[in-house]
Every structure is written in C-alpha cells, then in structure tokens.
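Bench log. Compound arrived from synthesis this morning; before running ITC I wanted a structural hypothesis for how NDP sits in the protein. Inputs:
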Amino acid sequence: MTTDTTVFVSGATGFIALHIVNDLLKAGYTVIGSGRSQEKNDGLLKKFNNNPKLSMEIVEDIAAPNAFDEVFKKHGKEIKIVLHTASPFHFETTNFEKDLLTPAVNGTQSILEAIKKYAADTVEKVIVTSSTAALVTPTDMNKEDLVITEESWNKDTWDSCQANAVAAYCGSKKFAEKTAWEFLKENKSSVKFTLSTINPGFVFGPQMFADSLKHGINTSSGIVSELIHSKVGGEFYNYCGPFIDVRDVSKAHLVAIEKPECTGQRLVLSEGLFCCQEIVDILNEEFPQLKGKIATGEPATGPSFLEKNSCKFDNSKTKKLLGFQFYNLKDCIVDTAAQMSEVQNEA
Ligand code: NDP
C-alpha cells in the first residue's frame, strides 16, 4: 500500500478507532471517518487540528438499512481500505436484539453491501474489528483446560446468546464476523476486496485524547476506572480473560493493511491473560497515591486464579504474522491509570 491511499474508518470516534485514525495519519494515509452526528464529527476534526488529510461523514445508526450507502456513493471511488470498527459495546440494555445484535450484524452487512454497490472495483481490503468474544462463549471462558486459537468460534446460537447482556454482546461479535466471512464467500466474483479480522481480548491502555475521560468512559476502560475508584477493604468482581493494549490494537490494524500475509486471517490479539486482582496489585504497587485507599483483594493470587478459572489462548500464529511485541500488563495498566489520575486531578 502506498501512503497516498485513502482509508475509511467506521465508528472513528471510538476508543480504539481514535488511535487507529491517529496512526493512519502519522503513516501518511488519507482518512475518511464516520461518526454519529455533526457535533461528534466536528469535535473529532478539532482534536486532530483539522488535519487536511482527515474528513468525516455522518452515519447516525449502523442498524438502519443501507446505513453506509451515502458514504460510498460519495467516496466509493477514493476508498481503497475499509476498517469497520463501529459496533455497540455496552451492557446497558435488556433489548439485546435491538441494541446489540442487530446493529452489529446489520452494520457489517450494510458496509459490505455499500462497497459492492459503489466501490466494488476500488476497495481492496476490508478489516473488521471483531473480538475474542467471537471465539468463545462467556460460559466457556472459565474452562481451565480449553485452548482457544485463531480457528475457534463462540458456540452460542442467536437465541442462546440472549441469556444476558454479556452473552449477547459476545454473540453480536460472532454473528457480525460470520456475516463478513459469509458475505465474501457469496460475493467473491463481484467484489475485489480481501478480508481480515482483528479479534482483540479486553482492550486497556490510554485514551488517544485524555479529555475523552471527562465525557464518560468506554466499556473496557471502565474496568480499570472502577478499580481505581474501589474502596479499601471493598470487594471487586475478578473479571479475567485475554488482554491487549489499545496501542497494539491500532498497530495491528495498520500491519493488517500493509502485510500481505495477514490477508484472509483472523488476528487474535492477546498479550496474555489478566484478572482484576493483577490490576489491583499493579495499582497498589505503582501508585503511592492509591495505596491504602483502594481495594487490595488477595495480593499475588492472580496467576493461580487464572490457572484454575480461565480458558487459555494460543495466538502464536497471530504473533508470528504481526511480528511485533505487545505491551505487557504492567506498562499497559500504569499508562492507563496514570492518565485517569491526571484527568481526575485536573477536575
Ligand atoms: P467504543 O464504544 O469506544 O466505540 C464504538 C464505536 O462504534 C463508537 O464510535 C460508537 O459511536 C460506534 N457505534 C456503536 N453503535 C453504533 C450504532 N448503532 N451506529 C453508529 N455507530 C455506532 O468501543 P471500542 O473502541 O472499545 O470498540 C471498537 C470496536 O472494537 C467494536 O467493534 C468492539 O466490539 C471491538 N472490541 C473492543 C474491545 C474492547 O475491549 N474495547 C475488545 C474486543 C473488540 P458512539 O460512541 O457515538 O455511540
């Protein structure tokens, strides 16, 4: 790919996508992003100092039919790469189909349909931001002997994933990813693009712009924030699973654009397993201002907890394909928490 290439990023205002937009601009790409409103789009353009290589389009709701048609009608002949990151990631609903599953699936279907209609000869690569949630059901996550790889699939059905919001979110990532692979299979002769997916575990790491933290927080960063605001002697839910730093997630999207070996691959992003006990240990050890004020749990028991309570991930194939070192948990959490503390002190 030459760097005068134009890349479209859906959901550009999101936690992960802002890092991607920044990395793309730094690498010299021209970027067209989508956000849900003029206000959000103007805010994003301002954050990037109205960089002339960045423009924004409104896609108000990816669940709507033909949501991406206008964008591709207008820009289809310029866009060579599509990064589809937009998807609802929250657990604040009881209407799982309407708020999680349908937007995830329809959004994926409609962006691919729009490419087929208006950019079949121009778009060369599509990279869908999927998740490790597409690889394993939440109920299997605690099976200590289960090993998840790039070939694994979440076993929930459309109905069974609607047991609760977490399962429904995981289902939404599975069905959205399946939609993309199936679309390509069925439309191979009428589109030019290849497909790769990026399947990150829990994503932590600093926000691209610290002041985003003043306007709410994305779901995965909320886990760290809750631990920073925990009470001494208090309890916390020991979430566990694979983790990855947001800066590595962004970098992986760029490598997937640039390395031909990533074509057709599911790239599973995990530096290793984490649990909240390990995050609490890091916060207590590395931040003197938090020590004695936040929960401690049972220090140093993280690794044994994970051994018994989490399935394992083997993403050696992805690590080899990407060929770069991921941030470790300590550096990732220290950078995340330092930014959160700084913003809090400014308030
Ligand atoms: P964010 O919530 O920060 O970003 C999601 C983006 O999608 C936002 O721009 C959001 O817009 C947009 N979006 C959501 N629903 C709609 C909709 N119905 N119509 C239009 N736009 C919509 O989350 P992340 O950055 O964390 O997630 C980005 C992607 O990465 C998602 O696909 C997520 O599933 C995936 N992922 C995230 C992980 C994590 O731990 N963070 C782990 C694995 C995968 P707005 O904010 O305006 O609503």
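What the model suggests: The pocket of NDP is lined by residues 11, 13-17, 36, 40, 59, 61-63, 85-89, 103, 129, 131, 173, 200, 202-203, 218, 220 (CB under 6 Å). The CA atoms of residues 119 and 241 lie 38 Å apart.
ITC booked for Thursday regardless.
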